[in-house]
Amino acid sequence: MAARRFGAIPTGEHKVRSISSIPPLTTLAFALLPAASVSQQAIQPFRTDTPPVIDGRLDDPVWSTAPFWSGFKTFHPDYGQELVGETQTFLAYDVANLYFAFRSSDPEPDKIKASVTSRDNIRRDDWVAINLDSFNDQQTLYAFYVNPFGIQGDSRYSAGHEDHTFDLVWYSSGQIDEHGYTVEIQIPLQSIRYTTADTVTMGVILERHVARDGEFATSPPLDPAQGDSWLTQMRPIQYYELDRQTLLEVLPAITYSHRRADNRGRLVTEERHTDLSVTTKYGITSDLIFDGTYNPDFSQVEADAGQVDINLRYSLYYPEKRPFFLEAREAFTVASTAASERDPVQSVVYTRTIVDPIVGARLSGKLGSRNTLASIYALDEIPPLEPVSETQYAHFPIIRYKRSLDEDSYLGGIYAARELSNEFNRVGGLDGQIRTNESTMLGFHGLLSRSRTGVASDDVAGHSVGIDYLHTSRDLDYHLVLNDISREFRVDMGYVWRTGLSQMSGLLRPKFYFAGNFVRRIDAELFTAQTRDKFSDTWETFNHISLQNYLWGRINFRVKYSYSTEIFLGEKFTTGGFHAYGGGQWTNRLFVGVLFRNTGAIFYSTDPYQGRSNILSANFTYQASDKLRGEASLTYSDFYRESDSQKVYDYLIVRGKLTYQLSKYLLFRGILEYNDFRQEILTDLLASFTYIPGTVAHIGYGSLHEKTEWQDGAYVASDHFRQMKQRFFFKASYLWRM
């Protein structure tokens, strides 16, 4: 799903085939209705007692009877265009499952891009998708993606943000043939949340991506007057007498870890540990779920990719990968945060601040038709910092409430805290999104924080206020944002770049479209942000102008020039410069993306000074076969002092990744990362079996080599790499669903 924002009811032609449950006169009425009326008619899928076999072949009797839906039109790079071939989607269900089947025609099936790869790794492939608003309340949706080989991707969307780390249990299969490709999908009702009514109405937008043309299309077609808007453009779909099974899941897991580290010149065992854990999920109703976990294993299967970690004003951001914290994560998004590229309040809830939880609990779902609740509690163990200190425990209670209004508008509240024995940080406030017309949305938040460090006299209060106004359409986007953040504002369980500022920013993006296959579209962009630093009562500025070209549909070139300044420790520095990006899927097998920046920069220290920096980032992916993929990345950064042009540092990270996906369930992967600045080599080997999310087995090995040696009672620099750390781990879990 491309950038989802907001929208209204579209128009367009859709085809619905007659089924036995629809009387002939109703079928004739569908044929005679105008296209706009048909797009708003509720679809009634075929109810079956003989479910299809999910094998990617559309030879089951149910598909010869089920209604189908077509009428796909593009929304990217432009609106209203035809795809290379027709797409038909068939709909059926039984008491416990929803079924979908796609026939995606393609006159040149040899050009279809598909790979046998891991889950959620199909964004550059051809694929089809189901965007399902299971409550039909225009607030959130599930997205189910499937490529031509049946490989899955899924996500959860809410309040303008799509979370691709979200995983559900569902089933799919696909195959390529001489006419294109076919896909079958089974979505168990136990995997999604939905209303308890006898007649369940959901909303759906179907989607298809054609990789070689870089085209995305939907049915019903998105209205170009609304831009790439989704939630209010769903077509209703009705199901009758769905089974009300009680959801109960038990997920036991075992993890064994053996760590070794160099001690005075030889590797010795640092830790040998076996952990047993259990996580449970209970459906209080079909739309309100409780999760509990004890001694959870949150070990990551793959190490975080290296980042430049010197000369930083802000802490680095690492994405959340731990399963317990991924579900319902989209519910904690607060309106008017991360609203612009200069917005310092990125998130109020950043769960990687919970480092080593002992227990966790989550309650999430709907209370009535308009109320949404999401809450998390975690008890985090904080190891002692010194031999004489004691282990501490941090409590993380987080509560989120939203009340849906008309269309995709809502009002909400949030409370989040980090509590220790003699200190705390608590944040609470209100937020909302109000649709002002069919193409614009007003977002806002007001947050208060209170913090204590040790004694009551240290209590400090702070605030953050944000307002943004967004307009999106085919030809023009614009976005206005206002922020005010006090110096004392703290969010220990969130991610905030900077405090003590007032900021006004605006973006204007006109879009131009061209006939032909070479230049498909050009986006011009003007952005400005004016910021008052409250610590020094001084203004800084950030401005850029850029042009972005879409060539042949799937190649993107962007050039940008910026003029900007930044206040640090009361001094003003120049930070603007030149930026260029070029990249895309050059062939079905090769992806290349290169970003270069030459800008002014600051050396962040107690005695800061002006400098200049070059940044180069390059990514390469080569799909050697359907199952074998090689990836490489390069990250380079340097800093030159302006006063004498002296190089202060350069920092280089090279990372390679080779993946062999034997089947949709089993993969073998190796990673090699070299950090030239720190003179380190990281290796990471993994064999992984994933049947469904939760039922997994992983065997992994990792090591760290450094250019050092033990000599005369101390570690000294060396010309040779020495293994300093080593880790072997095994993890297995099994999802019991009752």
CATH class of the domain at 24-240: Mainly Beta
Q: Determine Rg (CA atoms, Å).
A: 27 Å
Note the overall shape.
globular
Rounded average pLDDT: 89
Number of strands: 42
Q: Which spans of ≥5 residues are poorly predicted at pLDDT below 50?
A: 2-39
What proportion of the residues form beta strands (DSSP E)? Answer: over 45%
Structure description:
The protein is mainly beta and 738 residues long. Among the domains are: 24-240, Immunoglobulin-like (Sandwich); 320-513, Beta Barrel (Porin), CATH 2.40.160. Helices cover 3% and strands 57% of the residues. The strands form 4 sheets. It has a 24-stranded antiparallel barrel. Strands 3, 6, 7, 8, 9, 12, 13 and 14 form an 8-stranded antiparallel beta sheet that branches. Strand 15 (248-263) and strand 16 (266-285) form a beta hairpin. The longest helix has 9 residues, at 24-32. The protein is globular and about 80 Å long. Residues 2-39 have low confidence and may be disordered.
